[in-house]
TrEMBL record:
Biased composition (Pro residues): 1-21
Species annotation: Amphimedon queenslandica
Similarity section: Belongs to the Tom40 family.
InterPro entries: Porin_dom_sf, Porin_Euk/Tom40, Tom40
Compartments where found: Mitochondrion outer membrane
Name recorded for this polypeptide: Uncharacterized protein
Lineage of the species this protein comes from: Eukaryota, Metazoa, Porifera, Demospongiae, Heteroscleromorpha
Recorded name of the encoding gene: 100633533
Length: 318
């Protein structure tokens, strides 16, 4: 009798040693960009969106003499806010490229038949920007100031000295700092010190901006405060709406305004308008006169409370 065959052993499954799954490395966030300068907070709203109304007649003739030198002639007539005069201006732009379409040094000068002179000097060496302003009225100095901006990777520090007088010991000093917190949020502060005339004054303010692809909010809080909100309309990319409010804690005065900017035909015409809490309505139209190298400006402003109206027409050639 044959011996029974041994049972067939079931195959032993291979032992799998669990290996820790590699952690998904989170993508590194891009480095923060320079936020710009503290004094630029809210400046875009006033200069590029809301209308800068004028009255009377204005003619501006610009002539480029070379790639780096340009002159201008400005004639102003019938304005209630400025004397009728002719102004001559000159601009020199250097060879050092510090940014896209941005060259240094820059020299600007403007003098009129009233004897008033304004000069500006701009220069930049690596991360350091310098700006000097001077203004005279006849043979008297009206004001002069110098500003130094240091542009870091994600911050900007600025120092301004205005009208320093060693003999009398008077000066106005302003220190500013703006820091990028995130890719959208920037926060900063400003310290102003004024000395002279037997008194000393100091003021501290804080401010910041929050930017997205479709809207932007800005604020400055101090003795003088400012709030603004800019909204781009998604379906109407040519239209930008704005609301702003500014006031003084010392005087208690507050002015609010809403406005718009509408660009037509790739910049061939621009419409700007606003209405504020003092019931002042302003509008500005700028039309490019193709194929001529000229722009036509029409400005109108009406205050219903004071029953005042201002109207202006201007031409810019060159």
């Amino acid at each position: 009798m044959s011996a029974p065959s041994p049972p067939i052993a079931s195959p032993v499954p291979p032992v799998v040693v669990p290996t820790p799954s590699p952690q998904a490395s989170s993508p590194e966030s891009p480095p923060l960009k320079n936020p710009g300068e503290y004094e630029e907070i809210g400046k875009k709203t006033k200069e590029s969106i809301l209308p800068s109304n004028f009255d009377g007649c204005k003619l501006v003739l610009q002539k480029g003499l070379s790639q780096h030198f340009q002159t201008s002639h400005t004639v102003t007539l019938g304005s209630s806010s400025a004397p009728s005069q002719w102004q001559f201006g000159a601009t020199y732009v250097g060879h050092n490229k510090v940014g896209e379409n941005d060259f240094r040094p820059v020299l600007l000068g403007d003098i009129g038949t009233t004897g008033n002179f304004t000069g500006v000097f701009l220069h930049q060496y690596k991360n350091l920007k310098l700006r000097i302003n001077a203004q005279t009225q006849g043979s008297k100095w009206v004001g002069y100031q110098g500003t130094a901006d240091y542009l870091g990777q994600d911050y900007t520090g600025s120092l301004t000295l205005a009208n320093p007088d060693v003999i009398s010991g008077s000066v106005i000093a302003v220190a500013q700092y703006l820091q990028s917190i995130t890719s959208r949020l920037s926060l900063g502060t400003e310290l102003l010190i004024q000395k002279g005339g037997g008194m000393e004054l100091g003021a501290l303010s804080v401010g910041g901006t929050y930017k997205t692809s479709s809207w932007e909010a800005a604020a400055k809080i101090g003795m003088q405060w400012y709030l603004s909100y800019v909204q781009k309309i998604p379906n109407v990319k040519e239209l930008t709406l704005v609301a702003e409010c500014e006031g003084s804690l010392m005087s208690g005065e507050t002015v609010s305004a809403i406005g718009y900017r509408y660009d037509v035909g790739n910049g061939s015409a621009t419409f700007k308008g606003k209405v504020d809490s003092k019931w002042t309505i302003g509008a500005l139209i700028e039309k490019r006169l193709d194929p001529l190298p000229a722009n036509l400006l029409i400005s109108g402003q009406l205050n219903h409370i004071n029953n005042e109206a201002k109207f202006g027409v201007g031409f810019m050639i060159g």
